[in-house]
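Hi there, hope your week has been kind to you so far. Would you mind checking whether the tokens look sensible for this chain? I owe you a coffee for this, so here goes:
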Amino acid sequence: MLKYKIIFKFATLSFYYFFLISNCGSMKKYFLFVVFSFFLAATYAQDLKQRDSFKNEGLFGIVKAGFGVPISVEYQNGNSSTEDIGSKSSVFSLNAIGGYYIIPELSVGLGFGLDGLHNPSANTFPIYGDVRYYVKQEGNTWYGLLNYGRNLKLSDGFKKGELIRLGIGYKFFTGKTCWVADMNYGQYDVSLDGVAIRKTQHSYSYKRVIGFSVGIMF
């Protein structure tokens, strides 16, 4: 019953949200979408507290912020490419993940959010799969993660592309709050001409990104 109660609340609030922003511009609309989604996750935390104390069964949500540093950045223009074009390059991210525990050790989910890539600069809206394997069936445990997905071109301010991340993290509690923190290694590919990343000849590739993220699990 709890699951259907959450779905009903989400559908009702989502309808109200889209009614409110129907006259907003594209950039403002998608920013509000992310903020509103984070608000929903916090709102449902009270309902979700009825789950097991280890947070390793059924539905879950994660809101997280991250930072990464590319070891190198490659610029492709036609058949030629130039590497190490970035100086003090960085990646900032604000993402949300919704998922389900298949078994207490294994979860699958879908993530989305906002990524800001700097030096050179590009904004992306990634949608990606999230797979996590937890070492123990306990509240405090190590886990491995895999993310793979693509960036949606919601407007001219967002670039198409792909991302992949592998990481090792730790889930732990402070009081009743469940935290997740991980270190990850990945790559972000960004199309600069609006063409899919596998077809474009004009792109940035942020390679060997070493990142860290921290978030709250509901």
In short: The chain is about 20% helix and 55% strand. Confidence is low (pLDDT under 50) at residues 1-5, 7-13, 15-22.
